[in-house]
UniProtKB/TrEMBL annotation:
Transmembrane segments: none annotated. Residues 623-857 form the CHAT domain. InterPro entries: CHAT_dom, TPR-like_helical_dom_sf, TPR_rpt. Pfam families: CHAT. SUPFAM superfamilies: TPR-like (SSF48452). This is CHAT domain-containing protein. It comes from Cellulomonas fengjieae. It comes from the Bacteria.
């Protein structure tokens, strides 16, 4: 029997007829021990094909028979097998009960040899740890894994799985360095002793490396994993699923969606129903993230039907929950969805799935509030808050949100603020443990709604000081602490030339950069237990300190509440709150303005250019009326603008007649002001001309005449390592290069240099921070706003590293026409003007009657105080 069980993993279909024959013999002989073993073997053939719904009744029968006849040795093994099935079906509590029962049954089987008993208990202990892990009880699962590994005696397969899963838990807790070391140990064990596990364990290491910011290493491991799957003839569905998770973590959603869709296709073709359902749920979640609500709902409904057919009640509840979320976000949720969410919440809580249960109760509460049923919402929100207290930090954050919603519905503003503050403190700790700037920015999205709810409370107090302080609490927090950077030369970090990734990787990675992703290694060390010893909320300057740093300028910081905009205006002698209109009104004007500017940057005939100009002038006038006129500022005032959300894409320079600078937050502007005063005049000037850009060399040569002694890098000399080295300590840097934007994750936007593109992530990871930076390239100023009032892109990444001022365009740049603007800008800088004032003067000399001149007048903006 043991030899047949070993053969199941290799070829389950060939074992099935033999197992059926043994079951028939056992029934004929009425041999309970043989029947229990043969039913377990037959169930294993179904489990190997991911058909748990067929395995479950066989194991149920085996449990009944072996218990009735006191065949405790076999009963223990059957209970352990059924626990695995129950866990796969989503019932964590039932699985844990079976595992506990298996331990008891084994204790009643004295005939089992001590060594075999120890191996069995080790496997059961591993299963219990897995149940704890998947239920979201990470501390408990980590303790179990560590105890099992410390005790020794695990079979190589179990030891490899325990080590691998411990690495996953460590990564979830933010202990990336130990997680990578642990994952490497798991891969080494699999490679030497359990070759069949090598592919999935390398895949785990790839996912952790990506999460840790080591994208180059992670992509190499994903490729290695794919090759191992292909060589073994294993379907690539699970590979694509993990790849989709990694890309989702990086917010590379096109790649994530492509990989998840491929996972669905692969698993459907392989007939792996259980894994297919899980892949459909992942794809539905990605569709939610990309706001394709109808598709998300349809996928979730399909997965829920499949899960019910598979007798997986918990998975069906998870799928139903996504369907409710899709309809809630689309504004079509009704009483039916409220009932579905309540049933799903009860089912998920009963199964022991803490993560999903908290989310389900929160969604049920939201639907009730959306239907104007606060009394119906309160029990769900209260239950979500109570359950979340036992979970990890992101689960606790959802509980804080549920608590804030409940307190707001009850009309208790002080309690609302208390929940919001507590949640944002937890988020600050979590964010500080993340190793890359984009993961930190994405993590801030978990606190976006807490920030907005709290803003609503402080707005009711009508205090400009408290409103500004609250806005700053949630503004650009991911940028507030510099990450450590690698001092390894960039050239040493580039991937070696290969023949290219396997078809599996090429199909899943729809990135325009493909597998040639160059990202620096980011080393990140945490304090005791993975939490930095001191993690504080960002230090926010008060209005008095902000006003002193403004030195006569006027600060305008925008916020967003209940779909409307609000601004805090800090002037030399007063501060006030200004209520503005709906965000959707701004979007309605901004989209056609940016479209008109794109047409003007590359006009196709005078008629089209004239129509685009008329549209642009109209939209600019309307945006001025919506965003600037209500502020009541003098048109000659110098403004410091802190946008929010889609306002980061507004061409602010053309909306105000005086000088204007932007900043991710008031705190950041104050920091750049201090840096500008401290570093003024230090370093030299660096001028860079990238390849294949009309007028770039002419532009740089003209600027050389303005900056005597400047270092010029052009042609083959404008290579990545040379450019980054030159920029590191420059006082003023000018980059005339092609830019390639990535709106889904701007840290993968790039500038083209002589030896290929260099990403924002590379610039940031290399610690490059010239004092002042001019980016004369398309879209370089188009930083992208994320939930939680975070912003990422070239400009914000440079400011985060210490750059005190930058000039960049939010749109396509008419290359040759920009030369005159750049010359005037640099002449102003040479006279000692700040970038904002120099740009203002330079824009005043542009010929706005030409399409190219008008685009440059509109789209270039200054950032920071230098």
């Amino acid at each position: 029997m043991s030899s047949l069980m070993d053969a199941v993993d290799v070829d389950p279909r060939s074992v099935e007829p033999q197992a059926q024959a043994v079951v028939t013999v056992a029934r004929t002989r009425k041999d309970p021990e043989l029947l229990g073993l043969s039913l377990r073997l037959l169930a294993a053939t179904f489990r190997a094909r991911w058909d748990d719904s067929s395995a479950r009744p066989l194991l149920d029968e085996a449990v009944r028979i072996t218990r009735r006849h006191s065949v405790w040795d076999v009963a223990a093994r059957v209970l352990a097998s059924r626990a695995s099935v129950l866990h796969d079906l989503g019932d964590a509590r039932a699985a844990a009960r079976d595992l506990d029962a298996a331990i008891v049954a084994m204790s009643r089987a004295p005939e089992v040899q001590p060594a075999e008993r120890a191996r069995f208990l080790g496997r059961v202990g591993l299963s219990l740890a897995i149940v704890e892990q998947h239920a979201g009880r990470l501390e408990e699962s980590e303790q179990r894994y560590r105890s099992l590994l410390a005790a020794g005696g695990l079979e190589p397969r179990s030891a490899a799985i325990a080590t691998n899963n411990l690495a996953l838990v460590l990564a979830e807790r933010g202990e990336y360095e130990e997680a990578i070391r642990t994952a490497e140990a798991a891969v080494a064990l699999a490679t030497s002793q359990v070759p069949t596990l090598e592919a999935p364990l390398v895949q785990t290491r790839a996912w952790i490396a990506v999460r840790a910011g080591r994208l180059q290493e992670g992509m190499a491991d994903f490729e290695r994993s794919a090759r191992a799957y292909l060589d073994a003839g294993i379907p690539l569905g699970e590979y694509y699923t993990e790849y989709a998770d990694a890309m989702t973590d990086l917010r590379l959603l096109p790649e994530a969606a492509a990989a998840a869709a491929r996972a669905v296709d692969e698993l459907a073709a392989a007939g792996l129903g259980l894994m297919l359902t899980e892949a459909q749920l992942r794809l539905a979640r990605i569709r939610l993230l990309t706001e394709r609500h109808e598709e998300a709902g349809e996928l979730a409904d399909e997965a829920a039907r499949a899960a019910r057919q598979q007798h997986r009640a918990t998975w069906a509840a998870r799928a139903q929950l996504i369907g409710v979320e899709a309809r809630l976000q689309a504004g079509t949720a009704g009483l039916e969805q409220l009932a579905v969410a309540r049933r799903a919440a009860a089912r998920l809580e009963g199964s022991g799935d803490l993560h999903s249960a908290v989310e389900a109760y929160l969604v049920a509460g939201r639907v009730a509030l959306d239907l104007s049923r606060p009394r119906s919402a309160m029990p769900a929100l209260t239950r979500a808050r109570a359950l979340a207290g036992r979970g990890q930090v992101l689960v606790r954050l959802r509980g804080r949100l549920a608590g804030a919603l409940a307190e707001r519905a009850a009309g208790r503003p002080a309690a609302v603020l208390a929940e919001c503050r507590a949640g944002l403190r937890d988020l600050a700790v979590h964010r500080s443990a993340l190793p890359t700037i984009e993961l930190r920015a994405l993590a801030s999205g978990h606190g976006a709604e807490l920030g907005e709810i709290g803003l609503g409370v402080v707005l009711a107090e009508a205090s400009p000081a408290r409103t500004l302080a609250w806005m700053e609490r949630t503004r650009a927090a991911a940028l507030s602490t510099r990450l450590p950077f690698s001092d390894v030369p960039l050239a040493d970090r580039l991937p070696a030339a290969t023949s290219g990734p396997p078809e599996a990787v090429r199909a899943a990675a729809a990135s325009p950069r493909g597998a040639d992703v160059r990202v620096p290694v980011v080393d990140w060390s945490l304090g005791h237990d993975g939490v930095p010893a001191m993690v504080a909320l960002p230090q926010v300057p008060g209005i008095a300190a902000t006003r002193a740093a403004l030195d006569g300028r006027t600060l305008v910081e925008f916020g967003r509440f209940a779909g409307r905009l609000v601004a805090v205006v800090v002037e030399p002698r007063r501060a006030r709150i200004v209520e503005l209109g709906p965000v959707e009104d701004i979007a309605a004007e901004l989209r056609p303005l940016l479209f008109a500017l794109r047409r003007l940057a590359n006009p196709r005939g005078s008629t089209a250019a004239e129509a685009a100009r008329i549209s642009a002038d109209l939209r600019i006038a309307r945006l001025r009326a919506l965003l600037v006129a209500p502020l009541g500022v003098d048109p000659r005032d110098e403004l410091v603008v802190v946008p929010v959300g889609l306002l980061h894409g507004v061409p602010w320079s053309c909306l105000h007649d005086g000088p204007l600078a932007q900043a991710p937050s008031a705190t950041f502007w104050v920091r750049t002001r201090r840096s500008a005063q401290a570093r003024a005049g230090e370093g030299g000037t660096v001028l860079v001309a990238g390849p294949d850009l009309a007028g770039a060399r002419e532009e740089v040569e003209a600027l050389r005449a303005v900056h005597a002694g400047a270092r010029v890098l052009s042609g083959e000399h404008a290579r990545a390592q040379d450019v980054l080295t030159a920029l590191a300590d420059a006082d003023l840097a000018h980059l005339a290069c092609h830019g390639s934007p990535r709106a889904d994750n701007p840290m993968f936007s790039s500038l083209r240099l002589a030896d290929g593109p260099v990403t924002v992530q590379e610039l940031h990871g290399a610690g490059v921070a010239p004092h002042r930076l001019v980016l004369a390239s398309c879209h370089a100023g188009a930083d992208v706003a994320y939930a939680g009032d975070e912003v990422l892109g070239f400009v914000s990444a440079m400011l985060a590293q210490g750059t005190a001022g930058a000039v960049a365009s939010i749109a396509a740049v008419p290359d040759v026409a920009a030369v005159d603007l750049m010359l005037e800008l640099h002449r102003g800088v040479r006279r000692g003007l700040t970038l904002a004032r120099a740009l203002h003067e330079a824009r005043g000399r542009i010929d706005r009657d030409s399409p190219e001149g008008f685009v440059n007048w509109c789209t270039f903006s200054a950032h920071g105080a230098a």
